[in-house]
UniProtKB/TrEMBL annotation:
Pfam families according to UniProt: DNA_methylase
NCBIfam families the UniProt entry points to: dcm
Species assigned in the record: Chryseobacterium aquaticum
Key word Methyltransferase present: yes
InterPro entries: C5-Methyltransferase, C5_DNA_meth_AS, C5_MeTfrase, SAM-dependent_MTases_sf
Protein name: Cytosine-specific methyltransferase
Active site: 82
An example molecular function term from Gene Ontology annotations: DNA (cytosine-5-)-methyltransferase activity
GO terms (BP aspect): DNA restriction-modification system; methylation; negative regulation of gene expression via chromosomal CpG island methylation
EC number: 2.1.1.37
Domain of life: Bacteria
Family note: Belongs to the class I-like SAM-binding methyltransferase superfamily. C5-methyltransferase family.
Keywords of the record: Methyltransferase, Restriction system, S-adenosyl-L-methionine, Transferase
PROSITE patterns with a match to the protein in the record: C5_MTASE_1, SAM_MT_C5
Length: 335
């Protein structure tokens, strides 16, 4: 596209959603997040975009526009944190907990883009018996947008992960967006995603030692000159010996009774299933293990499961990198 549609990504994190938009031919100009680590990665991976560390509790779109010189935009995307929604009667009220969502609305009101995409947790659709969803639609309809929403399952769209996200899409001039139909009934597995990555740590930039073992690996390697973010976590001997008792795709129920309660969470001691999509990648809680190796997935393995290409390099501490990966929208789903 010669004149690519321009995009601002609010609450962008490391930029999974906006990276998907770049791959789809959009021009991402700006990403805003309050977390500096995420913005450092964002700027490193979104070459034409500016990243700003800003608290959207406090900064208005007018101030951001003045700071960046961005006056017009075609699309606004992002995922404001909505877990703490405060509602009264039949609508979202002007409570501090709703301010980040209200900030997203104010950016759409200020820039009046041709379209917006707001993503969120799937239960936003059912919160307050549908009051939150109805309020969101009403807020954007008042600004002149036709709004449609859907909960999408990432594994139906080429991501090797059963991750659900809710998307609200608004368009102007009575043009209604149509969500794509699932592209596969045979989802990619965890093995399809990461079987070419070795058991041990690699120095950043290490060349690939094997050919891709799946079409997905070939796609995700792209033009990468090597492997990055593949530093393993060294577990205690006890942890390693316990996880060695769990089979591919198993969990705490596969352990002897006396070992089951060594971690008091029902997701503990869960292995990826080599034949199925991964469960939702989290921010590095260390309860989920590789389907074969007796360790948690590396940042790169987690990134593969999230559909980040190998050229997308995460910066910051390892703990920070896990959080950046886990909080992101899978780029292929954004695409």
């Amino acid at each position: 596209m010669k004149n690519k549609p321009t995009v601002i990504d609010l609450f962008c994190g490391c930029g999974g959603l906006s990276y998907g938009f770049i791959e789809a031919g959009y021009d991402v100009l700006l990403g805003i997040d309050h977390w500096k680590d995420a913005i450092v990665t964002f700027e490193n991976t979104h070459k034409n975009a500016k990243g700003i560390v800003a608290d959207l509790f406090k900064e208005t779109p007018q101030e951001i526009s003045k700071k960046t010189g961005i006056k017009n935009i075609d699309v606004i995307i992002g995922g404001p944190p909505c877990q703490g929604f405060s509602i009264a009667g039949k609508r979202i009220i002007d409570d501090e907990r709703n301010q980040l969502y209200k900030s997203f609305v104010s950016f759409v009101d200020f820039y009046k883009p041709k379209a917006f995409v707001m993503e969120n947790v799937p239960n936003i659709v059912s919160m307050g018996k549908g009051i939150v969803k109805d309020s969101i639609i009403e807020d954007f309809e008042k600004l002149g947008y036709s709004v449609i929403y859907k909960v999408m399952l990432a594994s139906e769209f080429g991501v090797p992960q059963n991750r659900r996200r809710a998307f609200f899409v608004g368009t102007k001039n009575n043009k209604e967006f149509v969500f794509p139909e699932p592209i596969t009934k045979n989802p990619l597995s965890a093995k399809d995603a990461i079987s070419d990555l070795p058991e041990k740590s690699l120095t950043d930039g290490t060349k690939y030692k094997t050919e891709p073992k799946s079409d997905y690996q070939k796609l995700i390697r792209g033009k990468s000159d090597g492997i990055y973010n593949h530093e393993i976590t060294n577990h205690s001997e006890q942890t390693t010996s316990i996880i060695s008792l769990v089979p591919d795709g198993g969990n705490y129920k596969n352990l002897p009774e006396e070992l089951r309660k060594t971690r008091n969470v029902n997701i503990a001691w869960t292995r990826l299933n080599s034949k199925k999509p991964s469960f939702t990648i989290d921010t590095g809680h260390r309860h989920h293990f590789h389907y074969k190796y007796n360790r948690v997935p590396t940042v790169r393995e987690s990134a593969r499961i999230q559909s980040f290409p190998d050229t997308f390099i995460f910066l910051g501490s390892k703990t920070s990198q896990y959080k950046q990966v886990g909080n992101a929208v899978p780029p292929i789903l954004g695409n």
